Amino acid sequence: SVGGPKSTTLKEDDLIIIQPNVDRFKTAPQISVALREEYGLNVSVTTNSRRLRKVGLYGRRP
């Protein structure tokens, strides 16, 4: 990838990507909080959004 090193590992990316399967209405900020509380991961909201968009999950109004 262009730029600096990735801020998350592939395993951490997987944890981000499965969050919408647990609750499809979770927002990127809510995913950040959940990852911090459950796994102790400090992942930014922007990183969450990018990882989700990369696998085809885009934010929409319910």
UniProtKB/TrEMBL annotation:
Lineage: superkingdom: Eukaryota
Protein's UniProt name: Transposase Tc1-like domain-containing protein
Native species: Trichoplax adhaerens (Trichoplax reptans)
